[in-house]
Amino acid sequence: MKSEISRSNKLRFLSVIFGAMIALFLIVNGCGGSMGNNPMMQAGPTTSFAFVANSGSGNISVLAISSSGSLSTVNGSPFSAGAGAEFLAVDPLHRFLFVSNQSAASLSAFSINTSTGMLTPVPGSPFSTGATPHGVAVDPAGKFVFVGNESGSVSAFSINSGNGALTPVPGSPFAATSPFGITVSPSGTFLYVTNTNTGGGLSPSSLSTFKIDGATGSLTAVNSPDTTGATPIGIAADPNGKFLYLAEHMTESVATFSADPSTGALTRMGSTPAAPASCNVSCHLAPLRVSIHPNEQFMFVSNVGGNSVSVFSINNGPMPATATMATGQHPFGTALDPMGNFLLVANKVDNTISSFAVNAATGGLMPVSGSPFSSGGNGPTGIAIVAKQ
Description:
This protein has 389 residues and is mainly beta. Helix content is 7%, strand content 47%. The protein has one helix and 32 strands. The protein is globular, with a radius of gyration of 23 Å.
């Protein structure tokens, strides 16, 4: 009798333990079994890290990107930057991250641990810029970093290859109109700068070109500023240096310029049709940021007014959007992982990151399971991605 009671008690004990394990499993994974929004659970090994500038909280979130495109928070994240952290850029060797702090008039610089995603401020960070810094770009050689100050200048720094510390180049900051978005030509010879306030309202704005001194990093304005649509912000050069693409925010168009690699001269080739004045709110896309796929066949543009991201085929010059996918609220920054497998979009208002799998043959987007994911900060506006080493 005692043995039967003992056996019965053991069975009840095991049943309780087994039930508790099932309940814990359901709590961790959710009733639907989704692991997407749980930072402790990640579908597949980490392949890369996403750095997210949070303008509202003034810090940088670091998210691990899995082989399936799901996101999880890295230990130690977020890392402190400065007030209004907005744009960011990474050097070509993925050793250093640079972040413009709009409200602090500064540039934060971090060394990157590409094995863990951890960030460490470089000596002297943050570094002073002009007022209201926005766009950040590093030259292809990793020698210089440039910052567009909307107050009317471009700050230029040389990068210490050993520890990432910055030193203003001779003559910096350089006079400009009202810089916002900036990019360096693939050759490292020219800096292209969008000027947002030259016309005001819906009046045409402009695009300036500077020649970069390869030895010192100093800038010299070349050519006459080119006329653009109203409030150009997003800017990207194709990897071959043949074309330059602009998101003309207030005109609600995406423009294509051809670029002369020897002189930096630009020629406007055309743009997508602007939204008709008679349309309702739903058709005002207000394009904002631009990213080009590594295969140079597709471009992705965030539409802050349409809560969406558009896909463009660019292999034959300017083309209309081939597809548009819904994102979170007020999508700002966009970035592709180094292999071009995933596109991430920062949604400023709902503090999320949308993750899409990219079809490299068609440019088509498919939301990753569990997307959108928490950004880990307040007001995410910019994203940069590096491969895990």
